[in-house]
Amino acid sequence: MKISSDLFEAFLKCPTKCWLRFTGEPTAGNAYAEWVQARDESYHADAAKRFMEDVSANECDVAPVVENLKTAKWRVAADVPAQTPDTEPRSSQAFQTSTSEISQNLTSAANDQARPNWITESQLHAVERIPSAGRGQPAQFIPIRFIFRNKLTKDDKLLLAFDAFVLSKMLGRAVSLGKIIHGDDQAMLKMKPLALAGEVRKRLGIITALLASPTPPDFVLNRHCAECEFQARCRKAAVEKDDLSLLAGMSAKERQKLRSKGIFTITQLSYTFRLRRRPKRQRDKREKYHHSLKALAIREKKIHIVGSPELKIEGTPVYLDVEGIPDHDFYYLIGVRIGNGESAIQHSLWADTVADEEKIWREFLAILETVEKPVLIHYGSYETTFLNRMCKRYGEPFEGSMAAKAIQAAINILSVTFSQVYFPTFSNGLKEIAGNLGFRWSDPVTGIQTIVRRQEWEASRKSAAKQGLLTYNAEDCAALAAVAHKLLDLQKGSPQAGIPGEVVDTARLKWEHPYGFKRNIFFFPEFDQINKAAYWDYQREKVYVRSNQRLRRGLKGSTRFALPPSPNKYIQCIEPANCPSCGSLKIHKHIRAEKNVYDLKFTCTGVKRWVVHYQFHRYHCLACGTTFYPPKRDWTSSKFGPELIAFVIYQNIELRLPQEAIDQSVNKLFGLRLAIGTTGHLKTKAATDYAETYAALLGRLQAGQLLHADETKAGVRGADGFVWVFASMEEVAYVYAETREGGLVQNFLQHFKGVLVSDFFAAYEGIDCPQQKCLVHLIRDFNDLLHKQPYDEELKQVTKGFANLVRPIVETVDRFGLKAHFLKRHLCAVDRFYKELRHVNLVSEAALKCRDRLVKNREGLFTFLRHDGVPWNNNNAEHAVKPFAMLRHVIKGVTSEKGLRDYLVLLSVCQTCKYMDVDFLDFLRSGVKDIHAFAERRRRRRHGRDRSVAVTSTAARVSASDRAGS
Q1: Contact, 254 vs 291, CB < 8 A?
Q2: Measuring CA to CA, which residue among 604, 666, 669 is closest to residue 641?
Q3: To which H or E segment does residue 882 belong?
Q4: What pLDDT does residue 548 have?
Q5: Which residue among 175, 651, 731, 781 is the one 20 to 30 A from 936 at the CA level?
Q6: Residue pair 67/803 in contact by the 8 Å Cβ criterion
């Protein structure tokens, strides 16, 4: 079987086209494709004839014998047949190591499938032979390809490289030069085919695997479809399949990403749309384009609007549509429609030749000058390019003129509709959108087909062909006016914008979870009224109470007020001996006073209310006139004792009970009359008392040898804030910041010289210290990516290789602990893994991102292998985040910034007590402010108690032994 240049060219445009041509699939016809083929053949014949006119007849040849090519004497030959079996062996370069099993990508695998029975052939347009420069030096052959277009593409260069590839196989030596003669001026481009030889081999390998398959490839609609003879067939199949490629704006990478997630149809994609709240920093930026919303509009057959489309037409609308020949940069028809409705005026400015282009441009400017406040409106970038080129070629209109103002403020309707108005059409083309709005063309001609009709007019000069183009252009202007009018209606929200339910504002779309409680929305208000009467509270307070006396008494409640608790202890304060100000002994009792301090008393078996009643006097100094209380007293300005404060803080911070619930429980259990909000005041007082402890924790963390860091979001009265968590093996501290920017962490750790364990947040990269990135974070990210793209084999192989590398390291840690002496032996495996990973050939975007991430963070992923006691995960910080997350759920974002900072001070003390195996409540009750001193005291006390028990036990054994001996 043969791979010809026609098949190779078809593959460059579309793999499906290549397969259909190979299998002989009948075509439905395409006017533009037929015209291109005819034009190409005509240009080929004329160019070859002109090329050979400069060479004598005895040095020219047409269709020479292939077998005599090496011994040929001609200088130029046309229509040279070339073919050769591709028997070059393709060696596999699979990447396999003991730590990973990453194979080459599918493209490289396809290259390995080239078989000897496949033959590549090409009909070379022309070949130029350069005689041998000397003995032992063979003659050189230069393949030449004729292309009628003025502008070349990469596909044209690849076709020449394919010709050179086939020719080099025939000759058995490399072809180092090729030529392309193209365009109306017979311009010549010289190129080196060897630069594209690797890509040609790669494409041939894929074509070989493609044509060897009995089933066609997955077809994908692309831009070439308008020029393809199989357009109707593929379009029909795509619509039946509901294929993603029907969405014209979706790239191949985006389609592949969706397919890797198991999304293959437009209907499936439509169910993935979720309107997310935009961050404040992006609210002034344009909304991105959502393919899922486009799919939703198609599925529901409704127009969907994002935001508020702004189309301002302050003046007379002038609708512009231009027709031209892109290959020549020649514009031959300018359509101008002024005004709306039946009173609109249509101008069609026609250029017979390129020389008339300036004339119609001047006429266009003159028309703009006659319009009062013209507002130039067009659709797409083609007219934008036209205006810029005409101004450069023939000069801009006078500054300040109507034409200059209109051109400078021209409105591109596509920029208004794109990403804001989603019509239920597969593309955002003018014809599809206007057709969806009900506009119809008298002749269904596409833009690319107008090029053929213009060429036909130039050949025949028939008035019917010209009139057809004028009508087509005028109808494009009318369609543009219809789309603009529709956008204005949508913007104003007028009833004419569409029937009710035809237009959907995405801001009102709410994604409802299929599970959980939700409020019903009833069609009739009577249903809503009946449903409200069924609520439990309503029936208990409005219905059952009328027939149940017990409920009526219970709802009335008791009007008696609870008596204040009686004191448990009375203390009479000692009278001072002298004045604290002047030291005079002449003091006088002034007024008798008393105070109750409400507290709790902890016993071995529980806790009870404890009220202490203090009695004292105010004193007056007769010498200096000072009034004072006894200087030695056991109460403070607060009416609550330290044990009660410790108990309340323990419940709020350790047990994470809401403050209001603590107030109610204390009143219920201990008979105290705490006002609502008392716990909040006590929390503020405790945070002030332990500010010194908090500062000491921060200092210890900054001076330590190991630090874990993480951050999480925190809500402060509707605003977003962030809490940074710093933890070591013994200390934990929480720090609040208004933003997630790295300034706080970088300032906090500017003098830190230990090892920092963190996630992959970019803020940590600016810290000058050894860092260990959390491998668990990396593995979780890989796992999420695998779930999103379960069909990406390259991604599976890369991530599996990394898992095989890390697993033996974790086993060593489990066996010997975090000791560098045992972990250093894995450094060789790490080096080997990265060396082999660097040389693997990958195509998948997800696999490439994984590899780039592994390579970028190589130094930080395996720092723990060189240090003692450094973990490979950020477990300490993540564990410390959980208590705040649970506390955040209790706070629910209603606290102030100061209240949150108080929470963080006390939570830092609480978590540090846990990390140091100290009971938080015991620490609060002790009155000590240094956690480490308190922990050391407890350890000494426990050690002394253990020694006394051991001595007692030894003495008992000696006594028993003595009694047994006697």
Answers
A1: yes
A2: 666
A3: helix 875-891
A4: 64
A5: 651
A6: no
What are 724's strand-pairing partners?
711, 735
Phi/psi at 277 (5° precision)? -70, 130
CA distance readout (Å), 213 to 11, 22, 210? 15, 12, 6
Tokens 């160019």 belong to 47
Cα–Cα distance for residue pair 297/417, rounded to 1 Å: 14
Separation between Cα atoms, residue 727 and residue 875, nearest integer Å = 10
CA 107 to chain centre: 28
DSSP code for 139: P
Compute mean pLDDT per 10 residues along the chain, 966 residues long, and list them: 88 91 86 89 90 82 76 85 63 30 34 55 91 79 93 93 91 90 92 92 89 83 87 89 89 87 90 74 72 92 86 90 92 94 91 94 94 93 93 90 92 88 92 91 86 90 91 94 90 53 77 52 69 62 61 54 75 84 85 86 89 86 85 72 91 89 89 86 92 93 92 82 91 90 87 90 87 90 85 88 92 91 92 90 87 90 92 88 85 82 93 91 91 87 67 60 56
Tokens of 45: 């014949």
Cα→Cα distances 168→146, 177, 198, Å: 19, 11, 14
Alpha-carbon gap, residue 418 to 309, rounded angstroms: 10
Task: Find residue 663's DSSP bridge partners.
Answer: none
Dist CA 786 CA 59 (whole Å): 64
Paired sense of beta strands 755-758 and 706-716, if any: parallel
CATH class of 305-500: alpha beta
pTM for the whole structure: 0.58
Contact between 633 and 614 under an 8 Å Cβ cutoff? The reply is yes
Beta-bridged to residue 569, according to DSSP, are 612
Using alpha carbons, select from 910, 879, 496 the residue that is nearest to residue 710. Answer: 879
Give residue for tokens 């208000």.
Answer: 525
User: What would the two tokens of residue 612 be?
Assistant: 């202490």
pLDDT computed for residue 496 by the predictor? 43
**Tokens, residue 415:** 């920029």
| CATH class of this structure's domain 2-224 | alpha beta
- 237 token code pair: 């199949």
Virtual torsion, Cα 353, 359, 361, 367, nearest 10 deg: -130
The tokens for 581 are 């100000």
Query: Could you count the other beta carbons within 10 Å of the beta carbon of residue 153?
Result: 11
Dihedral angle at the C-alpha atoms of 253, 258, 264, 265, nearest 10 degrees? -90
What whole-number distance in Å separates Cα of residue 248 and Cα of residue 430?
13
Domain boundary assignment for the chain: 2-224, 305-500, 529-555, 569-639, 644-772+875-929, 775-861, 930-966
